[in-house]
Fold:
Amino acid sequence: MDTEKLKVFLQIVESGSIQGAARTLNATRSSVRRTLDELEAQAGAALLHRDPVGVRLTAGGAVLLERGRPLLESSRALLADVRAASGEATGTIRILEPVGLPVAWHAQLMLALHLALPNQRLVIRHVENPLAHLHESFELMIHEGEPPDRVTWFSRIVFQAPLRPAASRGYLARRGIPRDVAELAGHETLGWKRPGQAADTWPLLAGGAMTVAPWITSTDPFLLGTLAAEGGGIMLAPRTPLFEAPGAEPLVPLLEDQVGTDLVIRVSTPFPIRSDSRARDTLRVILAQLTI
Structure:
């Protein structure tokens, strides 16, 4: 099967329409439609239902989507390995990552990758929850939680820090220091919306969780950290300087033996680690720079 036609088909599915695919591929709508017609003629079956509002997969299209994506990725990986073997380590690494990564940590990572792999291009996409985008094309994913599949995915923990309630000295001087979970419930809180986690539910170290009522919820821990440093309330904050607002006084940890969990960040790839030089080399640099 022509991989260029397959690439167009996958882009139509990801974009949800022929027009959206044409825009992404920098092609005309008529050329994308023609490519789809040719692919359907080659398959001998309709691959997409074309509606006024977009496209829907047919049964045959669903099969092509499921089996075609690994085929296309294998083709890309093969070309990357051929170039690497010829001393021309070039290509594009597409990385899915959550919003709200610490700036210093992130900048260090990107610069290290560029210095180690100067001919490799990085395309970063920020999403609320990377694990909700497994159907999309990428080489590496930075995420919280367990890898989607421990059998076919390669995954390593690259960052780990305790999450505990914390507030500024000014806030605690004004509102008092909570001594237990019951007292904490009466304080102003800031809700960090992490991937797959509720901002108004804080885990207890002894098991279970407590409910809080944040006056603000955000996916940006730096916004919340700045608000906490300015006396805006108590947040469930990572115990590491990487997440602190620049120049801000460190927050005071609270109830360290009662409330909290661990923030665990992984880098995962859906490829067998030995089969794609792009993912392998990029992950090697990440692990060298950031592994705990």
